[in-house]
Amino acid sequence: MPYYNTPDFTPLFLTEKQAAETVRHTIPDFKFLDQHEKVFSAKTLDNKVHVANFIFTTCSGICPNMTSNMKIAEKAFFNDSLVKILSFSVTPWIDDAKKLLDYAEFYQIKSNNWHFLTGEKSKIYDLARKSYFAEEDFGFTKDSTDFLHTEHFILVDQNKKIRGIYNGTLQLEVEQLVKDIAVLKSLL
After folding, report:
1. CATH code for the domain defined by 3-7+26-186
2. How many angstroms separate the CA atoms of 81 and 69, rounded?
3. Average pLDDT per consecutive 10 residues, the chain (188 residues; last block may be shorter)
4. What's the predicted TM-score (pTM) here?
């Protein structure tokens, strides 16, 4: 599986040792509030594989489809403590913890490993754009005042390095995501 070190998602096919020496980009520490009003920190992701996406509860476009498709991954790794799913709200001024819990309940999300996160808008947008490279082709050109809306699911390995990007609106790509998660898990 490739590594991704830049916002243009140029794949780097490296051994784990080469990646340790070459791939400097990692997901930094962060703290946000989850749907259960608990602080969720990136430290929770140490030595775990995770998938991130960016949604908002009032979205009537791609978000419902993405959430339904992410349930494929939820089902595949339901009780697996080594796999986390993170859905960051891009409208945190609307999506407080209660609203995110209502959203999770509406979609019948039962896994304790799927966290819906809210917090300060500028921090979420900065993390999305500069760490997860959530908007391909944009790189770092947008700032936190530009609305963030993307269909991407970003796969991150146990060392917090980006290993995959998938179109979350396409079931076929999400099925590939599930296979890739299994590959990364086998390396733990």
Report:
1. 3.40.30.10
2. 20
3. 92 93 95 98 97 93 93 96 97 97 96 97 93 69 61 96 96 98 95
4. 0.93
